[in-house]
Amino acid sequence: MRLRQYITEVIKFTDEMTGSHSGQSNSKITAYENGKPVGYLEYTVYLDDVQISYIKSNKPGTGTKLVLYLQSQFPKTEIDWGMMTGDGAKLQKKLKNKLYIDYKTRNKIESLKAEYADLEKEEKDLMDKFDQGRIKITPKEGERLNFISDRKWDIEEELHQLSL
């Protein structure tokens, strides 16, 4: 009887930093099965943003295990997948229910984008009045245009910060 067939293959991971510059760290997680490398995942961390750079595996299921391991190292951080190949998109879709998603931030971004769109529409409607030959604006309309301009600026800044 072959004992080897009854031994469950165990995957072990190493996580090593491969470089750093300007506040960004570059790292590589390597998966080992029975002491032999079966795949790796390269990723970066910058300002609490974790982004996958590259995944390579030579055994089915290893990519999944690598991504789940990465998520376990950053449990309350939504992983940015960056640009993906077709295989990467399939892997992301397969794992979408197993990875952390920051719904609070996503909802905040959608809310700000909707408010911005409403402000742009209101601003356009006010400006259309002047394009129709009316030269003067009322003090109330002027105050409103100033508010719209200021609020749009604030939203742009907030969206920029949320996207970092």
Describe the model.
- The protein has 164 residues and is of the alpha+beta class.
- Helices cover 46% and strands 26% of the residues.
- It has a five-stranded mixed β-sheet, with helices on one face.
- α3 (103-131) packs antiparallel against α4.
List keywords for this structure.
164 residues, alpha+beta, 4 helices, 5 strands, disordered N terminus
Question: Which helices and strands, and how do they pair?
Answer:
Blueprint: E1 11-21, E2 24-33, E3 36-46, E4 49-57, H1 62-73, E5 79-80, H2 86-95, H3 103-131, H4 139-163
Parallel strand pairs: 4-5
Antiparallel strand pairs: 1-2, 2-3, 3-4
Give me a quick take on this structure:
This protein has 164 residues and is α+β, with helices and mostly antiparallel strands. The chain is built from four helices and five strands; from the N terminus they run E-E-E-E-H-E-H-H-H. Helix 3 runs antiparallel to helix 4.
Mind telling me the C-alpha Rg? 25 Å
Main pleated sheet: 5 strands, mixed
Q: pLDDT under 50 segments (min length 5)?
A: 1-7
Q: What is the multimeric organization of the chains shown?
A: single chain
